[in-house]
Amino acid sequence: PEVLLEVRDLHVEFRTRDGVAHAVNGVDYAVGRGQTLAVLGESGSGKSVTAQAVMGILDIPPGRITRGRILFRGQDLLKLKESERRRIRGAEMAMIFQDALSALNPVLTVGDQLGEMFVVHRGASRKDARARAVELMDRVRIPAAAQRVRDYPHQFSGGMRQRIMIAMALALEPALIIADEPTTALDVTVQAQVMDLLAELQRELTMGLVLITHDLGVVADVADRIAVMYAGRIVETAPVHDVYKAPAHPYTRGLLESIPRLDRKGRELYAIKGLPPSLTDIPRGCAFHPRCPMARDVCRTDVPPLYEVPGDRRSACHFWRECLDG
Ligand code: SF4
Ligand code: MG
Fold it and tell me: Are 169 and 312 in a shared domain?
């Protein structure tokens, strides 16, 4: 398939009161047409910051790309003028956020917000824009779209609002969608419905999808590949089913063991002890070593490279073989 997005050796820093935060430290990934890449990690792993760098919306808070390239259909986005990036954003790549209520304008009807995309980008008349808004709401299966197009965001349930966000992202038929925790704020049953809808639309429209989540439990059925991030680096990347069968990195193993399961009530919250490191003070050697049950002396001194693992996989663990063998 056509490669849509390539992130190459991306580095992003933030200046904070405590010093320079190294949010992204050499990330590489690629997504093609019709493919879904799940980017996994705890908060502070750099998964959202990488996405914001791709979208060109790193300005809040002020982040700085210090190295790397972001190619969209072979074109280096970091070399484009802001006006060109603005055109690509929305028309060719769009983003879906976790919190629809704050992403949508509370004083405009959803019809006006959806329609606005066609007025601004496609020069549509108000009447046509309204008709397109209703079509989009049908497409994301909002019941009684023709009536509900006049409602305001707060009049919808959380799940329906997230569908409206998806409709906004789809409006201009972008080739690539980045969804940052699109279902995290929703109830579990609604989560599954919204995720299914997103996956179905992705297939139907053969879009590329980057699905950012902290929950390995939601990606099994929708992703082709998975990239696990820790302290601003990718620590494991693999075809999704291989990761579930046998993780090649102890951090991925920990995430797998953290997936809530009915037979493990009560202890589903965090199987990985400790907290992610401060990005102003990332541990030497393997950044995961203070939390890793397999850590040895070499882990405290030597940064593991992203080793090649058989089966189109990579792992940044000195002991990936042992990890694979369980
Ligand atoms: Fe654990 Fe060492 Fe592997 Fe890092 S390199 S994940 S500390 S075993
Ligand atoms: Mg985030």
Answer: no
